Amino acid sequence: MSKILRSLLFVPADSEKKLAKAGDRGADALLIDMEDSVLPDRKSTGRELCAEFLKTTGTASQIWVRVNPLDSKYVLEDLEAIIPLEPAGIMLPKPDGPVDIETLSRHIERLERKHDLPEGNIKILPVATETARAVMSLNLYARTYLPRLIGLTWGAEDLATDLGALTNKDNTGNFAFTYQMVRSQTLLAAKAAGVQAIDTLYDDFRDQDGLRARATAAFTEGFTGMLAIHPAQVEIINQSFTPTQTQIHHAKAVIQAFADNSGAGAVSVNGKMTDIPHLKQAQNTLALYESYKD
Ligand code: COA
Ligand code: MG
Questions:
Q1: What is the pTM (predicted TM-score) of this model?
Q2: Which end of the chain is more exposed for a tag (fewer CB within 10 A), N or C?
Q3: What integer pLDDT is reported at residue 205 of this predicted model?
Q4: What's the rounded Cα separation, in Å, for the pair 25 and 243?
Q5: CA-closest residue to ligand 1 atom 19
Q6: CB of 35 within 8 A of CB of 66?
Q7: Is the shortest distance between the CB of 23 and ligand 1 below 6 Å?
Q8: How many CA atoms lie within 13 A of 286 on its CB side?
Q9: Are residues 43 and 180 located together in one domain of the fold?
Q10: pLDDT for 34-87, tens place per residue?
Q11: How confident is the prediction for the chain on average, in pLDDT?
Q12: How many angstroms is it from 157 CA to the middle of ligand 2?
């Protein structure tokens, strides 16, 4: 199984300053962005700096690259420049569904062959909800053979544009119903496809308490990671997506209760009925915790 990515930090590809220390920020993955954070007249500079970064930077973070969308005039040049340098993966913005992941896979495969690289190492993470068509295709991920797909993430900004919306927020400042629904659909589609569910970014990057609340809630719902836009968000996200000592303690108590009552399908833990789904949850929590230990 692919390593679970808790924090994925966007870094604009054309910013030498932000690239310089990006590798030391503790993110499980860096997302070097050649798309929306790079203006058209900076695209080639961004591509060059991104290539330079892949060639020269030693970091414990996986290095991913967000290329431009498949229907843009930049994407083939992006891939030609980046794939030979073997990034951990490609983030694809604005796909209309799994069919676009198949197209990207073919481009990657062609370049892997051309450059004598092992086939299949370079993974794909789509931003799976940026168009209405994409949302309507989410259920197809579970039924399409996509061996490079490691996860699904979602975005509310481009979707709002595609829907002709004036905002994606309701009058309390939370995501409006449509975007909450799309978020849940992404979680379900990722789990149905057996890949990582990665929550969207929290744009108010100075609000650390708000981020922690959002990330903690996402983890308890089943998301395994989250996008970040600022280095100060990384540690909070890593912590929020790692099981807490209380969760570990509870998981161990559930497993112990079943061990102490062999043959029982339901047991009592702290006065609450606990059955097989809870046992599986407890085992999942411990497995996740163990996977982050080293
Ligand atoms: N990656 C790496 N370094 C970053 C960073 C990022 N995403 N965001 C900020 N930094 C660095 C700054 O360069 C600065 O470094 P320094 O201490 O060496 O001077 C430090 O972190 C503090 O930055 P700060 O002043 O708080 O933020 P800012 O005003 O410079 O930048 C943003 C704010 C939002 C423009 C910036 O965080 C950013 O570019 N985020 C990513 C945007 C992006 O990629 N969007 C596309 C996906 S939606
Ligand atoms: Mg965008």
A1: 0.95
A2: C
A3: 96
A4: 21
A5: 17
A6: yes
A7: no
A8: 13
A9: yes
A10: 999 999 999 999 999 999 999 998 999 999 999 999 999 999 999 999 999 999
A11: 96
A12: 6
